[in-house]
């Protein structure tokens, strides 16, 4: 009876193992996959109790009773706890774990000692050294107890023989030695040599230099971020693949092999500092600790944003809720990504990168239980993403846009990114009405919808009865065409002129104001018609001669058509700040100074690397900084900015950044203002 129960239990284990094999990826092994699945439920490091073991086997134990699961647990458990590493190896190899590791080690030591003693003879000189012939003869004597495959597998695993010789892995000390042909010293005077000018590189550095673990991880993190998000996920996979015994620990060989595959390089003192900071046992790196240091700590602001993003897709970060991968794919707005909005990336590329990297990381870490994405899986993914995005504002912008995360007030941060903007249309461009046909009933394009007069009885083009006055007066016609600023030809030209200047950035505003001042001979804020034409020709603003005359006539009415008031034109070009942008500018003014902001203070607080033109448009930070400094010096005229002058300056910046999120980056991230 006992034999029948044992045979039935073996069949149940085979059924579970078959389901495990169906889910194993081609690049992984059954043992590795099962160990990662079990570790996901382990509250204590490396061990499972019966309840955790039952939950871990749910995806593979459909139709199997709780008693059978408990019998499997009792078969492999030690003292009420199941060792994950030992169970995974024995369960997938088909050999029941009936003996503990200490007992096997003791048996090996005693049998080897007895075999050598018998071979040497009891009267031989006692020594603890084992010759190769003795070691070989011992394994020859026991090889008959196992099949050829079992024997090779046992020897390879117990002696850790799956590490082949690799010169690129072994010869790491060469990086710590000074290379031949070191640069010469530099003479600083007639009789003095300066020794501190030698460059510090991977091969030229001080021998007594102590590498801090924070600096080492920061350099490695920047090296990975320069490649791509896919490279960051590949790094995680390379290190977990190197952990062939699935104990979350890497020895020196495994660590160097993973670094070589991940294209990471560490000097000898840096490697020592890593092993000291991440080692649980001597000579081994604890893999989760190392990856946590490599990715960096997720700040409270970034974690809160990730929680809001998970809540936006229907999950709850505070409980064990989960969402399906299909929901993530559906809610991921690739078109809203900042680089897609700027035209630098395609939406399909961004979506494919997210789907590939998310699924790859979930497979490596053993996440997505039962095919559902939990908050821990979502958070683990964005810990890797966060390591590739150094700027907090850019990370905030990307996550908010792609997941359509609402603000605290409930409003979506996206500002009609894909809706076509309403353009000003001129009434004169409307198509003429079709030819009139006698007897047809039509309405005039200018007649009110509720006109009591109705349609005229006859439709001669110039004929009208004496008792039928026009339905549109001359004053109404003039008000429709000339007083409607939003739809006048002048507003169209100003909108196009504003866009032409914005494409040049602050340099465009700087240049046009300088040209106005240059041609203002009387210094009264006006320029003549010929000077206005020269300005357009010199700057190439894209305004036709007819449109130049239209603007000149509109802004020279106060001067009786003799000269144009360019200050009025500049005021319309800058435009009014919307309420949200005006509040952001006021907050920045209060953060930078009390009542006034000096030009030097404004320039010292500006960080071009965090400006939107550098984060989103890939502009050189030095060029952006120089452009901003020149604009501050010119518009400040050497005097501090009061609030009105400060607002006018940022009205020009607002005209440059049409997107609200870009302007928010400029007034917050660029000046380190929260």
Short description:
With 674 residues, this protein is mainly alpha-helical. It contains 32 helices and ten strands. The chain folds into six domains: 2-98, Orthogonal Bundle (Recoverin, domain 1), CATH 1.10.238; 102-158, no CATH class; 213-295, Orthogonal Bundle (Recoverin, domain 1), CATH 1.10.238; 300-402, Recoverin, domain 1 (Orthogonal Bundle); 487-574, Orthogonal Bundle (Recoverin, domain 1); 579-671, Recoverin, domain 1 (Orthogonal Bundle), CATH 1.10.238.
Account of the 3D structure:
One of its GO terms (molecular function) is metal ion binding. Keywords: Calcium, Metal-binding, Repeat. Residues 409-453 are annotated as: Disordered. The two termini are 73 Å apart. The chain has 32 helices and 10 strands. The protein is mostly helical. The strands form 5 sheets. A two-stranded antiparallel ribbon has the order 1-2. Strands 3-4 form a two-stranded antiparallel sheet. Strands 5-6 form a two-stranded antiparallel sheet. The protein is elongated, with a radius of gyration of 38 Å. Helices cover 54% and strands 3% of the residues. Helix 23 (506-519) packs parallel to helix 30, helix 24 crosses helix 25 and helix 27 (579-592) crosses helix 31 (643-656). A hairpin with a 5-residue loop joins strand 3 and strand 4. The protein has 6 domains: 2-98, Recoverin, domain 1 (Orthogonal Bundle), CATH 1.10.238; 102-158, no CATH class; 213-295, EF-hand (Recoverin, domain 1, Orthogonal Bundle), CATH 1.10.238; 300-402, Recoverin, domain 1; 487-574, EF-hand (Recoverin, domain 1, Orthogonal Bundle); 579-671, Recoverin, domain 1 (Orthogonal Bundle), CATH 1.10.238.
